[in-house]
Amino acid sequence: MSQLVLLGADVVAVCLLVFGLFFRRHRRRDLVTAYLGVNIGVLAVASALSSGVMGAGLGLGLFGVLSIIRLRSTELDQLEVAYYFSALAIGLLGGLTGGPLWRPPTLMALILVVMFVADHPRLLRRYHQQLLVLDGAITEPLVLVARLEQLLGARVHSTSVQRLDLVNDTTTVEVRYELRGGLPGATRSTMRTSAHVTSRSGVPQ
Length: 205
Description:
Layout: H1 2-26, H2 29-51, H3 56-72, H4 78-95, H5 103-118, E1 127-135, H6 141-152, E2 154-165, E3 170-179, H7 185-194, E4 195-198
Antiparallel strand pairs: 1-3, 1-4, 2-3
């Protein structure tokens, strides 16, 4: 009976995580399948290991190796990795028995609350990270920061030059910045004509 309760808690928790939080906020259908598959797979194996002769530690070690392989097989940003391991952790909590019955559902709820708060659109919403291609090969760091602050209308916290093309006269730079109260219309227009902006994954915005 306790195993059925944990299975039900896992299903409810992973559905809230994937459909209530991740897909509702980020709309990536491919990762919905990945998160559900990881969760149910970990749940099944953890349940089998908890009732068999094989140690649970060996099973967790195997899933650690599989997780590394999975994360290296495609590019995921840190937010997607957080959801990935949340789905994995919920599956482990639902599959491993032992201890008070209330503990796994409580820990699942804790994971959901943390992800809800940490991924909330209003949390640190003034802070952004972008990959920009600037017109002009800028070699001076102070000049680069000044140019970026003018284009973004924001306070630049850090920059990382990815490529400096002296032939085509362009600078590719990753910048982390804090908005000062929204971009004025003139600044947005200047950005469109003076810089090519891409997201962290390289998709033009």
